[in-house]
Amino acid sequence: MLSGCAAPPPEPVPSPVPSLTQEQQDDAAFRDVMTRYVDLDANTDTEEDLAAILTGNLLEDEKSGLATQRQAGQRTVGKEVATGFVVTDRGLDPDGVQYMTAQVCLDLTGTRLLDREGSDITPDTDQRLSLQAKAVVSAGNSWRISDVVRNEDVHACG
Q1: Which of 25, 29, 105, 122 would give a disulfide with 84, using CB separation of 3.0 to 4.6 Å?
Q2: Cβ distance 129 to 106 under 8 Å?
Q3: What is the pTM of this model?
């Protein structure tokens, strides 16, 4: 064989990147919307911010709570932290709407509620809440949280 006349060895073909299953994509979307919910700033968020990630009674309850807090001159300082997010169920509800439920631990130890004068009026309550959340597919195939309830039976906080 003459040197310099041989074809160079073929470039290695990269392995295909495994794509996420629909279930994994949905789980990630639910985790994302829950993170966005926890990260909302009650002092500055708007009804539009809430409507982008919430639906149903939860949306109405949050809008009402937001209005009440602002009318009273209350503000929140600090940040809530969500940990232990795990999707626990998925399916179709009786109306044929796709849903998922998850458990999550909400840690409130870093937050305080202040009144108009800046006095701490944080309620004396548990600072770590074991929650169960439900998200549903809404218009545009986006996931929105429809329900969040306290549920110590899920032991999301360990």
Answers
A1: 105
A2: yes
A3: 0.83
